[in-house]
From TrEMBL:
InterPro entries: Macrophage_inhib_fac, Tautomerase/MIF_sf. PANTHER family: D-DOPACHROME DECARBOXYLASE (PTHR11954), MACROPHAGE MIGRATION INHIBITORY FACTOR HOMOLOG (PTHR11954:SF46). Belongs to the MIF family. GO terms for cellular component: extracellular space. This is Macrophage migration inhibitory factor homolog. Pfam families: MIF. One of its GO terms (molecular function) is phenylpyruvate tautomerase activity. It comes from the Eukaryota.
Length: 115
C-alpha cells in the first residue's frame, strides 16, 4: 500500500489536481509493480515552504510502502515524481525532496486493522 504525501507552496486553485493525482497513482503503481487500487496520493498546496532561502516554487514528499522500495526503485520514483511536478506545477527538480519509508504491515492501519 504505497502512500505518496506531497506538499508544495504552489497555490492549487485552478489547477487540475485530478489529473496530477491520476498521473501520480499510475506512475507509482507502474514503477513499484503494485496495483493502482492500493496506491494513495495526498496533494497539499499553498503550504508555507522556504528552500534555499527563497519561497520560490518548491515541494516535499514522503512515500511510505510495505516493501517494494530499494535504491533503484527510489531513484526511478524520485525522477518520475519530479517530472510530474515540473510539468504540472512548475516546481523545478532542484527544489523537490522525496523521502522514502519502507515499513512493515503491522505499522500500517487499514480497514480498521493493520496489514
Amino acid at each position: 500500500m504505497p502512500c505518496l504525501d506531497l506538499s508544495t507552496n504552489v497555490n492549487l486553485d485552478g489547477v487540475d489536481t485530478s489529473s496530477i493525482l491520476s498521473e501520480a497513482i499510475s506512475t507509482v503503481a507502474s514503477i513499484m509493480g503494485k496495483p493502482e487500487a492500493y496506491v494513495m496520493i495526498v496533494l497539499k498546496g499553498s503550504v508555507p515552504i522556504a528552500f534555499g532561502g527563497t519561497e520560490q516554487p518548491a515541494a516535499y514528499g514522503e512515500l511510505v510502502s510495505i516493501g517494494g522500495l530499494n535504491p533503484d526503485t527510489n531513484k526511478k520514483l524520485s525522477a518520475a515524481i519530479a517530472t510530474i511536478l515540473v510539468k504540472e506545477l512548475s516546481v523545478p527538480k532542484s527544489r523537490f525532496f522525496l523521502k522514502f519509508y519502507d515499513t512493515k504491515g503491522s505499522n500500517m492501519g487499514w480497514n480498521g486493522s493493520t496489514l
